[in-house]
């Protein structure tokens, strides 16, 4: 029996390819044998020597055992690795440039087609009735093509000849859509190139006529207004890596165009076909005269194509306007004007025709030692080649700069008398080739990492050297060629700043290059250092990925620009004494009352502390003044919360506010159990107010029969997956945790894995990681009351078993420092994570845009055939203090803030003003459904929200969370028995619960005085 068990264990471990586990099992069985021999009365010392000898032989022979695991058709355990591993790997498989998707990129599609570009005059289709279309309608008395959300429209256009054309649309987007319209375009039933899968059409946005002033006299960032007018745009790559519009081949005669909108809507009233315009050189002319026209970038902004491009305030004496005691908007914020494609427009009145120079006062510190590029248009066109992809050098401080050509000669511009439009658009076309090379290198390095995983398994033995060159011939030369290519890219980038020996913006490229050369120097160490290639946080691909991400930040702050003829008119920088005096006055002002400070209030007003940044508070205060105060007459003072953990002390000192917003969802229990909070169920309309929240999110705020907080935001959990990788592996989206387990062998065979949330929690595993599978298994943490924990319940133990076996048996990683990084590089292409991961991938991983998606959390099917997908969702909550003398006003305010209408207005304003990364994750589901989030993702999140449940916060529950984490760690990390770990945890939790119940008067001398009901049951009843 013992031998049979040993044999089964060996086979199991061989399948998992984990030699370290095999060593441990050998040691365990040797220990069993030693105990048996001792019982039999044999000479222990003699047999120990024998056993040690056997063990040494096993360990010495283990390399052959280990290598046989990876043999495709191994016949004996001592076969040589060179025979058992597929002989050798063809490097062509690693460096293959074949895309997962068969559609090629635009750069390959357009290469070598110059002779076939259309050369004639633009062709305009302004009568939609002449086009064969299934989506024609009448808008404003005109016939247009209309395509809505998730709809497809097709129409035919006639090309005069077979050639490559730019295609432009005169379009309008209906409604106040914050997100741009996104669509896929097909030409004659096919997608010509990859970039056509995601085209975007932006709305125009303008500022209100005047900037609003807050109650402290500061200018606040205005909410942009959508321009309800027709726009014109040629099709262009949504990433704007190309400065010029895309060209595509049309056949002579009729061509069918098909548009499928995935986000937003589109009206089209004019279609244009054109060739690629040619740009000449600028004129060399003498500039004379004394004309000087200055334009303030913040105050004179006429229009932009991204609502979040905004003005901001800086206490810099060199900026115009300037105030030493008030915030005045005096520059375009570099954090908002930073993405390729961002465009700003200004109107300039020229009183006297002639030649002018263009100067700018700007700061560009986003790319160390490297320029940011912009297209500069005059009256809708780039006037000459010099203004296409014009480089604005790195400047850590604001700097006056006159646009000059490559020979440092100022560029003259001829302007007629009258009104002109000047626009600036950020571009990255000079970096396009380098970025595509880096992306290709990243893919190739990932392919090599995968081959190494296939060779040695997921866990490399750090004490063994394997000369990878024997099994992947030419691998060191390949790595050196990658390093050489990186060095070439770096040298090419230095041409943009030849005065610098090192380019800080590309330092990660140099680090990656040096790391590759280090690996290539020691081929016998490559296998055990493979994490330095692709999977580690400091791997080569991590550096390359971070580099690509960094080069999507092209922020440039603009104070003003000016057209001048006499250099003497250029403003001078403030002198030393002026700046010093300004600094002194600013320092003196810090001793006065500060804006939104808890001490700078009117005690007659409702006092609300907010645990959020200033930009949130400014929008909230504006909404309050414009709507809540206007409707109710109740004045509100918002204050930035100094520290949410001091609310209990503030209450004890009589300094607590009437209402606190945005506190951690677990905090209301700690304050409420001490009698400091108002029970919200006492208000007659409480049920109506909470009807839009997931019931499970109310659980942490429940204390006995009362509820002491309203949810503010939710931290939803969903499953993230790489569509491209799962499609390549022909794997469907897993629906249950058992589906996930069935996928793991295929993932691990390719060096990939699944991410479970506990792997991202360092040290303590919070309820968000340990609760879901317990609840999905039908388990609970407490019974009818909280006096005794239900950790020992069979369903609860089953949930913990399923959780821990994912790591102990199914070998998913128990420590993943960055799921974000490994999801990007594809080594962990599927996993469960939360809102923060969602925001990060959506806004900071452009290289995998359009190849990832979200799905419901995989759960467990119950007896009724329904898959239960329970997950946590607590984030921030709102509370009212019991000792407020403005109870009715405070409740009116909390109801107003929680209303769907208010939440939608706040979320829209926040995202419109500050950008797509400022996503308001409201807990009000009715409001969430109307927020500007990607349509398809929003529905998944709403469906998952129906399964949100929280573990109750109760006396001693903090130890329940900790002991559950300890039990998990004991099983997964220390190999302890699950029931033993749970039994120990249960005893500790019960002991601590009784101690806390005595502290709060629910027990005395071990006897129950008053039962403390379990809020979990309230969830089930609802």
What this model shows, in words?
The relative contact order is 0.08. The chain is globular. Strand 26, helix 12 (614-632) and strand 27 form a beta-alpha-beta unit. Strands 1, 2, 3, 5, 10, 11 and 13 form a seven-stranded antiparallel β-sheet that branches. The longest helix is centred in the first third of the chain and has 26 residues, at 44-69. It has 1022 residues and is α+β, with helices and mostly antiparallel strands. The chain contains 28 helices and 40 strands. The two termini are 52 Å apart. Residues 1-87 and 1018-1022 have low confidence and may be disordered.
Question: Helices and strands: which structural class?
Answer: alpha+beta
Q: Using only CA atoms, what is the Rg?
A: 33 Å
Secondary structure tally, helices:
28
What is the overall pLDDT average? 86
Please tell me what the overall shape is.
globular
| Assembly state | single chain
**Unreliable parts:** 1-87, 1018-1022
Into which percent range does the helicity of residues fall?
Answer: 25-40%
């Amino acid at each position: 029996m013992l031998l049979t068990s040993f044999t089964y264990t060996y086979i199991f471990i061989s399948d998992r390819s984990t030699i370290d586990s095999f060593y441990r099992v050998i040691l365990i069985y040797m220990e069993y044998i030693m105990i048996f021999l001792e019982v039999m009365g044999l000479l222990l010392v003699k047999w120990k020597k024998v056993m040690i000898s056997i063990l040494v032989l096993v360990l010495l022979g283990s390399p052959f055992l280990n290598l046989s695991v990876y043999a495709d058709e191994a016949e004996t355990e001592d076969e040589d690795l060179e025979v058992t591993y597929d002989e050798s790997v063809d490097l062509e498989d690693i460096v293959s440039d074949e895309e997962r998707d068969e559609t090629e990129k635009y750069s390959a599609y357009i290469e070598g087609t110059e002779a076939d570009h259309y050369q004639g005059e633009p062709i305009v289709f302004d009568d939609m009735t002449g086009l064969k279309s299934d989506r024609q309608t009448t808008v404003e008395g005109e016939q247009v093509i209309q395509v809505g959300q998730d709809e497809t429209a097709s129409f035919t256009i006639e090309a005069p000849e077979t050639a490559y054309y730019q295609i432009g649309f005169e379009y309008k987007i209906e409604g106040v859509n914050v997100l741009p319209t996104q669509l896929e375009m097909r030409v004659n039933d096919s997608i010509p190139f990859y970039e056509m899968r995601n085209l975007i059409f932006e709305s125009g946005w303008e500022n209100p006529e005047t900037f609003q002033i807050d109650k402290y006299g500061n200018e606040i960032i205005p909410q942009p207004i959508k321009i309800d007018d027709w726009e014109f745009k040629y099709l262009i790559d949504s990433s704007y890596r190309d400065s010029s519009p895309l060209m595509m081949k049309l056949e002579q005669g009729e061509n069918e165009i098909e548009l499928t909108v995935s986000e937003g809507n589109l009206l089209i009233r004019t279609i244009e076909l054109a060739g690629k315009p040619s740009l000449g050189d600028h004129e060399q002319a003498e500039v004379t005269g004394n004309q000087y026209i200055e334009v303030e970038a913040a105050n004179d902004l006429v229009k932009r194509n991204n609502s979040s491009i905004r003005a901001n305030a800086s206490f810099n004496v060199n900026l115009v306007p300037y105030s030493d005691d008030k915030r005045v908007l005096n520059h375009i914020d570099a954090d908002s004007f930073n993405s390729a494609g961002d465009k700003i427009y200004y109107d300039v009145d020229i009183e006297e025709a002639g030649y002018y120079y263009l100067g700018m006062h700007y700061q560009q510190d986003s790319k160390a030692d490297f320029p940011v590029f912009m297209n500069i248009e005059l009256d809708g066109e780039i006037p000459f080649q010099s203004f296409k992809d014009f480089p604005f050098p790195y400047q850590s401080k604001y700097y006056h700069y006159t646009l000059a050509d490559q020979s440092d000669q100022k560029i003259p511009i001829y302007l007629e008398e009258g009104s002109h439009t000047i626009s600036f658009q950020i571009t990255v076309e000079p970096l396009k080739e380098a970025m595509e090379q880096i992306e290709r290198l990243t893919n190739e390095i990932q392919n090599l990492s995968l081959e190494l995983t296939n060779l040695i398994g997921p866990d490399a033995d750090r004490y063994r050297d394997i000369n990878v060159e024997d099994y992947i011939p030419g691998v060191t030369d390949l790595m050196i060629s990658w390093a050489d290519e990186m060095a070439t890219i770096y040298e090419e980038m230095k041409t943009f700043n030849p005065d610098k020996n090192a380019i800080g913006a590309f330092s990660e490229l140099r680090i990656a290059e040096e790391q590759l050369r280090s690996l290539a120097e020691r081929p016998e160490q490559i296998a055990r250092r493979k994490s330095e290639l692709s999977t580690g946080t400091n791997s080569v691909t991590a550096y390359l990925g971070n580099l690509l991400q960094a080069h999507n930040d092209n922020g440039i702050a603009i104070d003003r620009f000016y057209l001048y003829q006499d250099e003497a008119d250029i403003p001078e920088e403030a002198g030393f004494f002026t700046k010093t005096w300004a600094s002194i006055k600013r320092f003196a002002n810090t001793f006065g009352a500060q804006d939104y400070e808890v001490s700078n209030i009117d005690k007659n007003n409702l006092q609300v502390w907010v645990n959020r940044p200033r930009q949130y508070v400014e929008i909230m205060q504006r909404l309050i003044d414009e709507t809540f105060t206007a409707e109710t007459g109740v004045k509100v003072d918002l204050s930035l919360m100094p520290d949410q953990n001091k609310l209990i002390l503030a209450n004890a000192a009589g300094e607590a506010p009437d209402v606190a917003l945005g506190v951690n969802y677990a905090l209301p229990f700690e304050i409420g159990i001490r009698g400091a909070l108002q029970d919200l169920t006492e208000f007659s309309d409480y049920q109506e107010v909470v009807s839009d929240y997931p019931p499970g999110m109310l659980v942490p705020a429940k204390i006995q029969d009362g509820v002491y907080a309203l949810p503010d935001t939710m931290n939803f959990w969903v499953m993230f997956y790489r569509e491209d990788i799962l499609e390549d592996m022909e794997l469907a989206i897993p629906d249950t945790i058992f589906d996930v387990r069935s996928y793991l062998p295929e993932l691990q065979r390719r060096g990939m894995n699944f991410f479970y949330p506990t792997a991202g929690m360092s040290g303590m595993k919070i309820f968000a990681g340990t609760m879901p599978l317990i609840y999905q298994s039908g388990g609970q943490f407490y019974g009818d009351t909280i006096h005794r924990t239900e950790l020992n319940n069979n369903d609860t133990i089953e949930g913990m078993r399923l959780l821990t076996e994912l790591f102990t048996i199914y070998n998913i990683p128990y420590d993943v420092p960055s799921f974000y990084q490994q999801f990007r590089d594809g080594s962990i292409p599927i996993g469960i994570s939360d809102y923060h991961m969602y925001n990060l991938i959506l806004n900071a991983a452009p290289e995998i845009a359009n190849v990832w998606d979200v799905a419901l959390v995989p759960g467990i099917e119950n007896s009724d055939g329904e898959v239960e997908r329970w997950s946590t969702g607590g984030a921030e909550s709102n509370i009212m203090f019991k000792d407020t003398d403005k109870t009715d006003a405070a409740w009116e305010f909390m109801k107003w803030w929680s209303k769907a209408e208010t939440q939608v207005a706040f979320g829209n304003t926040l995202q419109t003003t500050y950008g797509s990364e400022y996503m308001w994750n409201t807990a009000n589901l009715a409001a969430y459904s109307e927020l500007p989030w990607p349509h398809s993702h929003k529905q998944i999140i709403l469906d998952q929200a129906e399964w949100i449940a929280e573990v109750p916060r109760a006396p001693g529950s903090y130890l329940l969370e900790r002991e559950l984490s300890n039990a998990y760690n004991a099983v997964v990390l220390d190999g302890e028995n699950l029931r033993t770990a749970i039994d120990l945890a249960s005893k500790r939790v019960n002991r601590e619960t009784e101690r806390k119940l005595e502290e709060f008067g629910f027990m005395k001398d071990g006897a129950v005085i008053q039962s403390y009901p379990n809020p979990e049951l309230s969830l089930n009843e609802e």
